[in-house]
Write a structure and sequence with these properties.
Elements (H helix, E strand, L loop, with lengths): L14 H14 L3 H8 L5 H21 L3 H8 L5 H17 L4 H8 L3 E5 L3 E10 L3 E6 L5 E4 L3 E5 L4 H7 L1 E2 L1 H5 L16 H10 L3 E5 L3 E10 L3 E6 L4 E5 L3 E4 L1
Helix pairs in contact: 1-2, 3-4, 5-9
C-alpha cells in the first residue's frame, strides 16, 4: 500500500505571542492571522490598519459604482480620476462600434451628392465615384472626374444646406493668418483625445470647431469616429468635419 502522507501538526503559538495577538484582534478588529504577524514583529499595526482601510474603500467603490477591482484600486490610491477613467471606457466602447465610420464611404455607397469644402476654400459639389486609402474620386456638377486627397478635406455637408452652412460659419482671423495648410504627418497634427469627443457627445453642449484654415463651426457633436466628427450646427444643418483638419475646439 502506498504510504499515506501525514499532515504536519501545526506549531502552537508561544503563549505570549498568542495573548498579544488576541488583544490586537479584540481591540483593533484585525484578523487573528494578521494580529499574529504584528505580535511577532513581522508587520506593524499601522500597516495592517492602513491596508484594511484601503481594502474597505476599494470594496465600497466597487459596490457603489460597479467598477472592477483594478480600477477601484488605482482610484483609491489617488493615481487616477474615476470619472475620467469611466469616460475613457465609454469612449472605447463607442469607438468599437463606430471606429471605421466614414461619411465619404457612406456617400460613395449611396451615390448621394455632397458639398465638400476642399483646402483652402473651395466648395465642390458632386458625387463620389471611388474611395482609396488616402484619396477619393468625385464628379463635380457638369465637370470631369477629379481626384481629391482626403487630407485636403475640411468638411462635408448636403448641397441643399450650402447657403445655411456658409452663413453659419465664420473665420478665426488669428488662425487664418497662420496660413496652416494640410498637415501630412499625423504626428504633427493636433490629435484630440477620443474621450474629449465622448464627453462633448454625452453633454450635448455646443462647442466651436476651428479648422487649420480658421473656419469656425459652432454646434454639438452627433457622432464621431477615428477620422471624422459629425456635428449639428446651431443654425440647423449637419456638417461632418475631418479630425485631421481640426486646429482647436473651444
Amino acid at each position: 500500500m502506498p504510504e499515506v502522507l501525514k499532515k504536519r501538526p501545526k506549531k502552537k503559538l508561544p503563549p505570549e505571542i498568542a495573548e498579544k495577538a488576541r488583544r490586537l484582534n479584540e481591540q483593533n478588529g484585525i484578523p487573528f492571522a494578521l494580529a499574529v504577524n504584528v505580535a511577532r514583529g513581522k508587520d506593524t499595526l499601522s500597516n495592517v490598519l492602513n491596508r484594511m482601510l484601503r481594502d474597505s474603500k476599494v470594496q465600497k467603490l466597487m459596490d457603489a459604482r460597479g467598477v472592477p477591482k483594478n480600477i477601484a484600486q488605482v482610484v483609491v490610491d489617488g493615481k487616477a480620476d474615476l470619472d475620467r477613467l469611466l469616460l475613457k471606457q465609454r469612449a472605447r466602447q463607442y469607438l468599437s462600434e463606430n471606429w471605421s465610420r466614414s461619411v465619404i464611404d457612406e456617400l460613395h455607397k449611396s451615390g448621394t451628392p455632397a458639398a465638400l469644402l476642399v483646402d483652402p476654400d473651395e466648395v465642390v459639389t458632386g458625387g463620389i465615384t471611388g474611395v482609396d486609402t488616402y484619396e477619393f474620386r468625385l464628379v463635380p456638377d457638369e465637370a470631369d472626374e477629379r481626384t481629391v486627397r482626403k487630407v485636403d478635406l475640411h468638411c462635408v455637408f448636403a448641397p441643399n444646406d450650402a447657403k445655411a452652412v456658409r452663413e453659419a460659419a465664420s473665420i478665426d482671423t488669428g488662425i487664418r493668418k497662420l496660413d496652416l495648410g494640410p498637415e501630412l504627418s499625423p504626428q504633427k497634427r493636433i490629435n484630440f483625445k477620443h474621450a474629449e469627443f465622448q464627453g462633448r457627445l454625452e453633454s450635448g453642449k455646443t462647442a466651436v470647431f476651428i479648422t487649420r484654415r480658421g473656419h469656425r463651426f459652432s454646434g454639438r457633436i452627433l457622432w464621431y469616429s477615428r477620422w471624422e466628427v459629425g456635428i449639428a450646427l446651431d443654425a440647423g444643418p449637419e456638417v461632418t468635419i475631418f479630425r485631421h483638419g481640426l486646429q482647436n475646439i473651444a
